[in-house]
Amino acid sequence: MHRIPLSPRAGRAALALTAAVILTAAAVPAAWAHTEQDSGTLILVGGGLKDNNSEIYGEIITKAGGEGHARIGVLTAASVPESQDPNAGDPATCSNSACNGAYYADLFKQFGAADAQWIPIDIEHVDAADSDAVVAQVNSMTGFFFGGGDQYRYVTSLLHGAAHTDSKVLAAIRAKLAAGAVVSGSSAGAQIASGPDMVTGGDSYQALRDGSAPGYFDDATKLGYLPDGGFDFLRAGLLDTHTGTTGREGRAIRLAADTGQDRVFALDEDTAIEVENAGTRRESLRVLGSHGVSVLDLRNARTRQRDAGWSIDNVRYSYLTDGDRYNPLTWHAEPATGKTVLRADSATPVPSNNDVFYSVDNPEGTPYSFSGTARALTATTAQRTATATTYESAPTFQVTFTKTGATRAWTTDGHTAASLTELTIAIAPH
């Protein structure tokens, strides 16, 4: 198994000393303590951003100055370079850094940007990340978009690889964000905004069974992470992407527990968190898009390792959808205007679920399986708890969803839960 060498990192006790990483209800993160001024906006998409998502593209342009004024710098260094793309010569099928950069630049212009330009950096042109000419190009932009691919290529090209120091271009983008610019990204382009312990890969079942390890692995099922993280734009918790379509809630919970993190924002596809005043005490989040964002709160979670396997309980789970807001400082969610409190009026039991993490090995699996069970539970009067299991066995893991006195759900149609807060989650071998 190939592994990218990483500097050793201390365990949970040492992590507790890093106030910018560990968030508690009683303490304000050190990263926020001295940042009273306003800052820019992050718009981070869980991947699968549709070409016609005018809400998200439009908001990026609005935050960058509006139609006819926004100037978007597009970074696609997470893509392979042209030399590694067998379809580089075909504009219809190419998928490399230059091709993808041109694609997104054209798309932003279609949505009303005054200008959009590819920032010509990739893993074969890392010197450009320290080019004064490219820095000048960056400084002429009012907003930025990071495309998808492999987030470690952003580490290689913009963070000087193992040195993990800002290139001149990244330093310029960081300064632009602090001065009020918008920084956006999708999939790997969102993931790279993470602080310490950025996830590098893994599937939920293998994560629950085997735990996590620092590094970057050829085995795509193994839960890996980079202790030094990504660009550290988002400090309020871990990030994960493609959540509902690849069943990543389990791996997000395991990684947070293993690394001592207290919170995860797990983003569904075609859905974003908009983080205004990023990194300051005024930081606030709003959900945009067609699906949702899982907020996993591990402040009171407890883990155990026994012969039968690993388990965790008392994870608080919220699922927020379009327009909902969240305050990371107070850990409080507010529903969007137009959503009303759901009064559970159905006695229909929660449907059985034997593939809670939508296993790649199950051809009959259902995406958004985890959030689907949670939403069904909040809409019924028939039961206070619901259970779901993994498709895989030896061991099978069971997820228990429980309504508490703090659980709330909101609806747009009067019958189904659009959003919910404060379910508790337990996961254990079954």
From TrEMBL:
Question: Pfam families in the record, alphabetically?
Answer: Peptidase_S51
Report whether Metal-binding shows up as a keyword of the record: no
Keyword Cell cycle in the entry? The reply is: no
User: What keywords are annotated for this sequence in UniProt?
Assistant: Carboxypeptidase, Hydrolase, Protease, Serine protease, Signal
Q: What class of enzyme is it?
A: hydrolase
Q: Which domain of life is it from?
A: Bacteria
A molecular function (GO) term = peptidyl-dipeptidase activity
The region annotated as signal peptide is 1-30
Enzyme Commission no: 3.4.15.6
Alphabetized PANTHER family for the sequence: CYANOPHYCINASE
To which protein family does this belong?
Answer: Belongs to the peptidase S51 family.
User: Can you name this protein?
Assistant: Cyanophycinase
Organism this protein belongs to: Kitasatospora paranensis
Q: What is the lineage of its organism?
A: Bacteria, Bacillati, Actinomycetota, Actinomycetes, Kitasatosporales
